[in-house]
Specification:
Hepar_II_III_C, mainly beta, Heparinase II/III-like C-terminal domain-containing protein, globular
């Protein structure tokens, strides 16, 4: 989705919602990559390549993407497998569906949903582009109480008006989470 005009600095984004065909694709349904000011503002971690030692423990993990992770587990079919080459069960594709798409002059919007990547959970994401701003509405509902982590990866230093204390260590020892170090709260 791109802002109006041919401006190379225009705000635009891409989102992944469709069918995951094979193990070359990542478990990142409803993930977003954001561009603006002529740069990538919120990158997709999965575009680094297979030669990286981080492939299994970071790049294919849902937490490495700008989307939601449930209970520190990567989306189906990757889950907790110890290989990057995981294909879905035949007849049970891990997919999202396009619910709404609008490409008007005043605003652009897309809504996608998936109930196929976490058992008992529905992910529902709406992105609205009001150039140069993007409004991101992410709704998650699960049948059981769940830990929901909404990751947003960007370049630069995060700032807060609140005083945050560095906790040290990593968020957990799970794949992907082990690389999120020195959290603050």
């Amino acid at each position: 989705m791109r802002g109006n005009g041919d401006d190379k600095d225009a705000t635009c984004f891409e989102t992944h919602y469709g069918l995951r065909i094979n193990s070359h694709d990542h478990s990142d349904r409803l993930a977003v990559t954001l561009y603006g000011l002529g740069e990538i503002l919120a990158p997709d971690a999965g575009k680094k390549g297979y030669g990286s030692g981080l492939q299994l423990n970071w790049m294919v993990q849902t937490i490495a993407h700008n989307t939601v992770t449930i209970n520190e587990t990567t989306q189906y079919p990757q889950g907790d497998h110890n290989t990057v080459w995981v294909d879905p069960i035949p007849g049970r594709p891990p997919e999202g569906k396009l619910v709404f798409f609008h490409a008007g002059k005043k605003f652009k919007a897309i809504r996608a949903m998936s109930d196929k990547v976490y058992e008992g959970c529905v992910l529902d994401r709406t992105l609205i582009l009001l150039n140069p701003f993007v409004i991101d509405i992410y709704r998650v509902s699960c049948d059981a109480e769940s830990q929901i982590d909404w990751a947003w990866h960007g370049y630069g230093q995060a700032k807060s008006k609140r005083k945050l204390a560095q906790q040290g260590g990593s968020l957990s020892g799970r794949k992907g989470y082990m690389h999120l170090t020195n959290p603050a709260s």
